[in-house]
């Protein structure tokens, strides 16, 4: 009995610490950390969506970056005013953000005739085609996307509150610019996204999705409307990607085609595999690791062995070191930790003396 | 008309090179049920070795060394990683090859840097004329060499003991193992052959009229993905047909994109993927792939 009380206290303390950190970070850390954290949180939203699709339902998607691009560019198109070169609708930014999420969902829905027919590797490479299609459209449709140079992103304004550097806002002596304001928005969005996905996964839909992943025919026989579920999850996951795209665009303040390429699409797969397939926590953990690793290595390159400082020859540049490190992490996780980092954390927790059994640990991730 | 004939010939020649790469995907998929995303890096390893060595040991030994190097690297990936993975899910195995690809590609692009490396091939920029139609000699050589290699492979696949063992294990791994087929060896040799084919493909992707090997050469290998998929991931004939379709499509689209206005720019790069999607909508397992049937 006391075990479970300890566990509850422990978890409560953990959440309280995380909450305090989320609130206090903008007051104490500088722009670099805010930026890194914002990237990580946007990536986490996208990774949660991909994990619903690939991890929980077993539909391999290598084109997630495309749906991020749809979200980011739709937001820019809807919210910008038209000028000589670029078209835009000039809608209120809040409406534009919702429109962007819906547009990403629509794009996912349009792809569903293909996703419904294909399985496994075939689906993976068909979604891979979306990346090339996306690059073609982003470079070609210059009036909407700004072509190679991309487009400036109008800052979000919600209920008269602007997520930008102006008007000036000072809270407890700290100037609250765009990054500080976006930080709280991103925290709220991430919590909402994680909470909703958790609800989907632990409820009946999650059970159906896992059954489809493990045995599609069996799922169909048991009465799961397989194709409707597959299409539905594809749309939902695209909407998550669209939301992540909007957040990213707001943080970058500029959208460029090159960002939404193959590398980004593969990064997302790495995130869910490293964190742990099929779980919300795993997606968040993986997203933070994959996004923060290169930035940390760049920031501390002078005090790390083997890593050369940017601009000098010899050794690995920080970006290269980060990529090799994280490629190795992907390989090592698949080989040694089939349940990802989250699975490892749960295993460690179970083995601690007087261990804290996690009530929600699914039995299949046990060794 | 001359323009069309030239484009067609270029397309067929490029298609045969794509077919070499696609055949690699197919062999690996048949032997270990893995979609190998590290193939682009294996190709880059082969090309890089040829480009580095030809100055010191001559072109032909360098080509051999490149093929051997890529074959060894591929075999090592199979031996050290694929074989040891306990992942039941094939998507996860595909993702592990992405990890391998990231490591290899990062190291190779670091070594290549901003260079454009010459391959030291004996054909140079010679051009062959057939009446009005003219085509670089390298394209013809590519067509002949790829044709010979693919032909040899298909014959070996059909008639040698290795080919029989390979087909048996692709059909039913367990039954093949019970009949004395050593699955490990089959898988290892499949990876090695695929690596060697990729190295040869690397050579023909980087000779004239391409300026040479650079860090983006591996990306060209990605076009062999639609070739392998639209032919059918488990069909060797499919790889060949798919390669030719992709090569010809790409050559024609790039050749005429100037006449399509602003829509045309970059169309040659997407066209292979669009063709693939159209084929998959009609035949979800590719043109020659085995359709999965489930009986309830």
UniProtKB/TrEMBL annotation, chain A:
Q: Which domain of life is it from?
A: Bacteria
Q: Which CDD domains match?
A: TM_PBP1_LivM_like
- Chain ranges passing through the membrane: 12-29, 35-53, 60-78, 90-111, 120-138, 183-201, 231-252, 259-292, 324-345
Q: Name one Pfam family in it.
A: BPD_transp_2
Membrane topology summary: Multi-pass membrane protein
Query: In which broad location class does this protein mainly occur, judging by the first location in its UniProt entry?
Result: membrane
Keywords for this entry?
A: Cell membrane, Membrane, Transmembrane, Transmembrane helix
Record InterPro entries: ABC_transp_permease (IPR001851), LivM-like (IPR043428)
What compartments host this protein? Cell membrane
- Listed GO CC annotations: plasma membrane
- Example GO molecular function: branched-chain amino acid transmembrane transporter activity
Protein known as? Amino acid/amide ABC transporter membrane protein 2 (HAAT family)
Which organism is this entry from? Answer: Actinocorallia herbida
| Taxonomic path | Bacteria, Bacillati, Actinomycetota, Actinomycetes, Streptosporangiales
From TrEMBL, chain B:
Membrane-spanning regions, if any?
7-28, 58-82, 88-109, 140-157, 188-208, 220-246, 270-290
UniProt entry tagged with the keyword Cytoplasm: no
Membrane topology of this protein? Multi-pass membrane protein
Main localization category:
membrane
Q: What domain of life does the UniProt record list for this protein's source?
A: Bacteria
- Could you state a single Gene Ontology molecular function term? transmembrane transporter activity
Q: Where in the cell is it found?
A: Cell membrane
- Choose one Gene Ontology CC annotation of this protein and give it: plasma membrane
Return the similarity comment: Belongs to the binding-protein-dependent transport system permease family. LivHM subfamily.
- What PANTHER family is this protein classified in? ABC TRANSPORTER PERMEASE PROTEIN, BRANCHED-CHAIN AMINO ACID TRANSPORT SYSTEM PERMEASE PROTEIN LIVH
Q: What is this protein called?
A: Amino acid/amide ABC transporter membrane protein 1 (HAAT family)
Q: Which organism is it from?
A: Actinocorallia herbida
